[in-house]
Amino acid sequence: MSGYEGFRVDRDDASGVLTVTLDDPAKLNRVPLAARGQLAQLFAELEGDDAVRIVILTGEGENFTAGGDIAAFMDATPEQLSRLAWNIAAPERCPKPVIARLRGYCLGVGLEFALACDFRVAADDAQLGLPEVGLGMIPGSGGTQRLARLVGLGRAKDVVMRRRRISAADALAWGLVSEVVPAAELDRVVERVIADLEQLSPLALRMAKRVLNHVYDAPLSIGLELEGLAYGLLRSTGDFAEGVQAFGEKRPPKFEGR
Ligand code: COA
Question: Backbone phi, then psi, for 133, in 5-degree steps?
């Protein structure tokens, strides 16, 4: 699909990596309202796209994004705004691993989008924040909920209600990002995450993501039951058998995603 507004998509079928780049650097990669639905649609389509194994979400140039297109919110109906969270949760629903590659400003919907990804790696110049209350709004794409669950209610209130900007160092200390490196090394870190994921069974990764996301807020007893069922389901796959056999033969496994 072409005609994306405010972002572009580059796919490398040889490596199975698809990169989504917010690409309006003159406007600090602000996310147009239309882009949200387009991004959700794109992530949904990836489910049946076997050539894509891993997705990277990033911004062109020195920033991820300064957030949603502020003026455009006045063109949306209250009902449209109330659905924004569904669109920005698309990386979470996508069965493939999604890596957020963060630089510079990572504000508003930028942080919310990153929170819906599986892995977040950042350059040391990254600044994360949810400044919406300064506009008379609140973070409306999952930010209040995912941030609080990830870093705790107290820290989330500091960010949402005082507009505290989170430095890359604090983001690392809070567990909000998994790695922080100088900007020049960011691609190398992303490559390393990709290399780690490429060695693994896509089936097992898909199931792990599903279990981790879906039972995150379920009671422990339900979570454990679903985990057990998912584990049992994998037992009948070729990748499970291959993993066990390769270990026994002291060789790297060759997973086929079946
Ligand atoms: N929506 C729409 N346009 C935006 C934007 C956003 N979220 N963030 C930046 N821009 C635009 C600016 O309007 C400006 O456009 P112009 O050159 O046509 O005037 C351009 O991007 C550069 O931004 P500018 O504000 O001049 O850069 P700065 O370095 O002085 O400040 C920020 C950077 C990030 C502090 C500032 O742009 C800002 O506060 N942005 C909004 C952050 C926000 O509230 N995000 C949540 C939105 S819900």
Answer: -60, -25
pTM score over 0.85: yes
Residue spans of alpha helices (H) in the chain: 33-46, 78-82, 84-88, 90-93, 109-115, 143-151, 153-161, 168-173, 186-198, 202-214, 220-234, 238-248
Model confidence at 217, pLDDT cuts 50, 70, 90, reads: confident
What lies within 8 Å, CB to CB, of 250 at 6+ separation is none
Is the minimum distance from the CB of 139 to ligand 1 under 6 angstroms? no
Helices 202-214 and 220-234: crossing angle, nearest 10°? Answer: 170
User: Contact, 240 vs 208, CB < 8 A?
Assistant: no
* 218-to-189, 214, 228 alpha-carbon distances in Å: 33, 8, 14
From 22, 28, 103, 132, give the residue whose CB has the most ligand 1 atoms within 8 Å, as the site to mutate. Answer: 28
Residues marked active site are found at 112, 132
**Is the CB of 66 within 6 Å of ligand 1?**
yes
- Ligand 1 site-directed mutation target among 5, 22, 24, 27, most atoms within 8 Å of CB: 27
59 lines ligand 1 (CB under 6 A): no
Does pLDDT of 171 surpass 60? Answer: yes
The full DSSP string for 146-213 is HHHHHH-HHHHHHHHHS-PPEEHHHHHHTTSSSEEE-GGGHHHHHHHHHHHHHTS-HHHHHHHHHHHH
**What values do phi and psi take at 207, rounded to 5?**
-70, -40
Number of other residues whose CB lies within 10 A of the CB of residue 71: 9
